[in-house]
Design goal:
mainly beta, eight-stranded antiparallel β-barrel, 65% strand, elongated
Length: 164
């Protein structure tokens, strides 16, 4: 069987099984509700960029994200705002034709600004799970929950993912 015939057969099998072919690069715009132990919840906006790595493993990828709080977390030791940067290894698995589940684990750096104690930073491990619903071949709706290794910081994010 020639290479073009193999490609045609694989394409027909993918269409028949309902799996869509996705682009490898993506960007996300996310809104999040962030929680920190001892403080009231805060709202944050985030962006992330990622790349699927189908040549390395079928469902594996990498992702980098940045979140910035735009409301204060009120607490007894003062008000806190934060900027969070993280790098993840991701695993995305198709459940149905348009539904994907994903998990992620990675390192984060958070810069905290406290109105009483001043600036502080935190480095650690974040992990999370989520679901995506494909609107079309270029856009997904994303819902994910991410927490820290100490489980004192978490975020519930909702947003759009764009493939390019």
């Amino acid at each position: 069987m020639h290479l073009t015939q193999r490609v045609l057969v694989i394409g027909i099998l993918l269409l028949a099984t309902g799996h869509t072919v996705r682009a490898e690069n993506y960007a996300r715009v996310l809104g999040a509700l962030a929680s920190l132990d001892g403080y009231s919840d805060s709202y944050a906006l985030g962006v992330s960029v990622g790349r699927d790595l189908p040549r390395l493993a079928p469902h594996l990828g990498v992702e980098g994200e940045f979140f910035k709080s735009f409301s204060k977390m009120d607490g007894t030791p003062g008000d806190v705002t934060f900027n969070k940067t993280a790098a993840f290894v991701t695993y995305t698995y198709p459940i149905e034709l348009r539904i994907y589940m994903h998990g992620k684990v990675g390192l984060r750096y958070a810069a905290l600004k406290n109105s009483v104690t001043g600036d502080d930073s935190d480095v650690g491990v974040d992990w999370g799970v989520g679901a995506m619903f494909a609107l079309d071949h270029h856009r997904n709706v994303v819902l994910e929950f991410i927490t820290s290794d100490e489980n004192n910081f978490s975020q519930l994010a909702l947003g759009l993912q764009f493939f390019y």
